[in-house]
Amino acid sequence: MNYTIASNNIIFENGYSLNFEYPIKNTLLINNIVIILVDPPFDRIYNQNVFAVRISGDFLWRIGKVSLYNNSNNCPYVGIIVNDSNQLVLFNWCDTAIIVDPETGEMLNKYHTK
Fold it and tell me: What is the total count of domains within the chain?
């Protein structure tokens, strides 16, 4: 692995590290890009909780605001996967999944999960 995780800190092989406001829940490595899902507390609205960083430590993006299929304002992301089509998919509490370009963070598609 090209990095290690210690609570809210990610440390790369080159010694560079990044600290996040909340603990890191999960990571995915896609083409030398680390997708990072942080885990905010339940009582805090923190919907933009997915980040992308190169394994060199260069920051690429933070997920933008996405219109949802319901009216809730508290919908952090809770899961990140690479699907069978090799697409990065982010899932949030509010039954919305988005397919994202790992290089840019641009939303490519969105669908309702329930």
Answer: 1
Cα dihedral: 14, 20, 23, 29 (round 10): -50
How would you classify the pairing of strands 33-38 and 88-92? Answer: unpaired
Mean of the pLDDT values across residues 31-43? 95
Distance CA 50, CA 101 (A): 13
pLDDT bucket at 74, cuts 50 / 70 / 90? confident
Segment (H or E) for 24: strand 24-30
What confidence score (pLDDT) does residue 65 get? 87
The model carries a pTM of 0.93
Range of the domain at 62: 3-112
Q: What is the CATH number of the domain that holds 7?
A: 2.40.10.480
The angle at the Cα of 81, spanning 36 to 29, to the nearest 5 degrees, equals 50
